[in-house]
Design goal:
9 strands, 2 domains, 41% helix, alpha/beta, 3-stranded antiparallel sheet, single chain, 6-stranded parallel sheet, elongated, Rossmann fold
């Protein structure tokens, strides 16, 4: 079991806390809003009302022994910076930060966070890919130029191995650069269009 500290209990922070706790991890959740803390209390190991920007407060709740932390302070960029620095002061090496803009992400990367998460942008890209590319069931951004697509076989005519038998109800998971995935899905779309003629 790993220990995680979640700073900020809005929709994103609460969702992460609940999911980690449901996977059997030790989850400490903190927010300055007592209502948010009360709402998550039964879905984590420990919930505390406090200021996640304060090193002493984080130390008091046991953050220094965390394997990783998630900072999700809404639109307050200053709070996310100070919370991240406080966690780093406690030697929490792996910090994930929810960001609200590219500039926010840039600042957090300069602070050395493990990963920046941009839920609104990522969800928007996911939905756009699913509704604009025929046959894409799911789309996951893995980095700047990497993605994974779940694609139904009836739209993917070209199998990776010519000896494999694929059925229209099969789903393929494609992982690679944006260019490589675009090339494969583009080829499949062209092949499907030719077959329809």
């Amino acid at each position: 079991m790993n220990r995680f500290v979640i700073v900020g209990l809005g929709n994103f922070g609460s969702s992460v806390a609940e999911a980690l706790y449901s996977h059997g991890h030790d989850v400490i959740a903190v927010d300055i809003d007592e209502t948010a803390v009360d709402g998550i209390a039964s879905h984590c190991s420990r919930a505390a009302v406090g200021d996640g920007r304060e090193t002493a407060m984080l130390e008091e709740i046991g953050a220094e022994s965390a394997d990783a932390a998630v900072v999700s302070t809404g639109d307050d960029i200053t709070a996310s910076i100070l919370s991240t620095m406080a966690l780093q002061d406690l030697s929490v090496e792996t910090v994930y930060v929810k960001v609200i803009s590219e500039n926010h992400a840039r600042i957090m990367r300069k602070l050395g966070v493990a990963e920046t998460v941009f839920p609104e942008r990522d969800s928007g890209h996911n939905l756009a890919s699913r509704i604009s590319e025929k046959g894409v069931v799911n789309y996951v951004r893995m980095g700047r130029n990497l993605a994974i697509h779940d694609t139904t076989v009836d739209e993917m005519i070209v199998p990776p191995d010519p000896d494999d038998t694929l059925h229209r109800t099969d789903t393929l998971v494609l992982a690679g650069t944006d260019e490589a995935i675009d090339a494969v899905t583009g080829l499949a779309s062209a092949t499907a269009a030719e077959e329809e003629e």
